[in-house]
Each structure stands twice: as C-alpha cells, then as structure tokens.
Amino acid sequence: MKHELPKLPYALDALEPFISERTLEFHYGKHHQAYANNLNNLIEGTSFENADLIDIIMKSDGGIFNNAAQVYNHTFYFMALKPRGGGQPRGKLYDALVYSFGSFDNFKTEFSKAGATLFGSGWVWLVADKKNKLRIIQTSNAGNPLCDDLVPIMTLDVWEHAYYLDTQNARPKYIENFWELINWELIETRFENL
Q: Where is Mn(2+) annotated to bind (predicted)?
C-alpha cells in the first residue's frame, strides 16, 4: 500500500496571516511529503508493505514507526485547520471541555501551556481515554497517543519546522495563531464519533 499525502482542504495561502504560504510549502510540501516518501521506501518488502497507517503505528518501531507516526500526526494536524477558523466548539465537545477543564478558557490556557513548555520537538494532543474523559498530553518526537490506548481528537505540532519561518523561535506566538485556525466543526465530529 502506497501512503500518500491527502490534499489539503484549503489553498496554501489560505491560512495567512497566521500560517504563511511559505511555511505550508515547506511543512506540508516538503516535511510531510518526506515522511510519506521515507515510509514507502522503508516498508517495501516488509510485513508492513500492505498495512494501513494505524496498523504500522501500532506494530512497528524505529524508522518505520517514526515516519508512519509523522505521516499520521501531520495529516491529523493539517486537516483540523481552516481559514477563518477559531472561536470555540459547540455542543457535546464544548460541554466535555468545560467538564474536564472547568471552562473553555482554562482548556485553552492548559493546552497552550503544554505546547509552550514541551521541551524539544513533539506534539500536544487533546485526547479521550477509555471512559471518554478528555486529557491534554505531550508526546516527544513522533509520539502518538494511539500507542497509549488514547483516542486523539486534536493536535498541535510544536516541531520548529511548523513555525520557524513565521515566528522564528517565538513558539508562544505560533500557538496564539493556531487558535485562529482551528476547524472546530471537524474536531466536534471526531469527538462525537468516539
């Protein structure tokens, strides 16, 4: 099975001024593509050659895991962005965030803090556990919550390649911009399909 990048549901310049076209050309067009290319090369002739992405993530390690997880993580991140996004969720997701974090603003603060304080490269996730309780977790490098029996709902990429062209080393500014692009409708659907 050949793993390919999904087509973005927006133009490369559509997230400006929060994420530039140049950043997406590199982040999506080069970094994300390189993970897919590497994965396809690494699985050729192995037991993972015809496996789907989640099976590879759950059963592999080393380079195969790293590239498979990065394909998944980046796709999960990019698909949950949209031009003129932001605001706050509605319905069951909103209620669950208030239940889990006390308020939507508290959730935003905790999620942003997790992103700003993650040392090195990695991801911040909103996940649901087996009881559908929401949690915020950090994963380093290509870490993925599926490996810990958690269901990902939303993620933020805090590798420097996600923001360096736009905000240089100012990760908190990138995180602030992220809140202006979230596609809450898609994230609500992910939550409701748990």
A: 27, 74, 157, 161
